[in-house]
Amino acid sequence: MSRIVSIEITHHRLPLDPPFKASWDGRPRKHFDATIVRVRDAEGREGIGSGDLMKGFEGHEELFIGKDPRHVEQHYEVLSHISFHYGRCWPMDLALWDLTGKITGEPVWRMLGGRADRVRLYASSGVLRDAGAMAAQAESYLEEGFPAMKVRFTSSAGGRDGWRADVRAIEAIRARVGDRLELMVDCNQGWRMPWDTTLAWTFKDALAVARELERLGVYWMEEPLHRSDRKGMRRLSDATPVRIAGGEMTRELYEFRDIIEERAFDVIQPDVALVGGITGCRRLAWQAREAGVMFTPHSWTNGIGVLANAHLTAGVGEAPWLEYPYDNPEWSGERRDYPMAQPLRHARGWLELGEAAGLGIALDEERLKATRIG
């Protein structure tokens, strides 16, 4: 019987030159941090996870050492307690699933139910560009085979001149590519960076934006109100045919339970690297399906997080697309996936998961050694 013998957590930092100017952050990002979790068993196999910083995990290793890594439900309960008291330690769950797959010789997507071995992707942009540049970016996504694109609206941190300028960017995209590309919009109103104290949109603001997005055939509008305003989200969902999406930073699974029961969102977007891990989020996929709510994870961490969300989506879910953070040149695959031996590659908008045991992660050990900061 396999037993966990060691857990190693390392932190890494990749300098970004030129910086990445994220739409949700008024401060240009000059580096990109990644935390790598390695769980090893007595036979020398290693499970890998990545995502949040694992704050508060140190000192709790004995709760896992000596245990069977395949007992993911038991480990999930322990991680849920740690995450309640400290930080989000869900990368540990990803590493346990990766190790379990290596023990059994199976890819995670098959262990989760095996509905599919690939996922359709939507290109998720991150940089605010002027209308012409956004249209050109949309055309490049279409040429690469993506069926859909998410456009970021400005947060209060800066960027375009308010939501009307954001709408003009959508108009420019539609003028360039017509209806050949499905469009989603991230309104960036659900949460703020710590230094950004500007209020989120009101319900009437969000409704006015929704009317414009209806006209432009937008598939969903994401985070149009503050995360606490679930009643407002439900009112907005009832008032517009545009789907309402959200939940990328929701901290607890019970909050998603309430969101699903209240039909506050048409689309829920948990990220296995940030809430619940694979073990917890598979519950949400089942709950959402039963309620007629779309399940399609957020995945803006790194390639390891993208892979983990992809395995869950392929194995359990029926999402039309999975988020694929990709916005050249500022957010290239090489930047996003620097801990990995090779960046993820899509095939005409599909991510093929294949038959590799576990999550199929291969790390770039030399790059990790060069970028290690802790």
UniProtKB/TrEMBL annotation:
Q: What cofactors are annotated for this protein?
A: Mg(2+)
Q: What's a GO biological-process term for it?
A: carbohydrate catabolic process
Q: Which GO terms describe its molecular function?
A: hydro-lyase activity; magnesium ion binding
Q: Which Gene3D superfamilies match?
A: Enolase-like C-terminal domain, Enolase-like, N-terminal domain
Q: Give the keywords, sorted.
A: Magnesium, Metal-binding
Pfam short name (any one): MR_MLE_C
- Taxonomically, the superkingdom here is Bacteria
Q: What is this protein called?
A: Mandelate racemase/muconate lactonizing enzyme family protein
What is the species listed in this Swiss-Prot or TrEMBL entry?
Sinorhizobium mexicanum
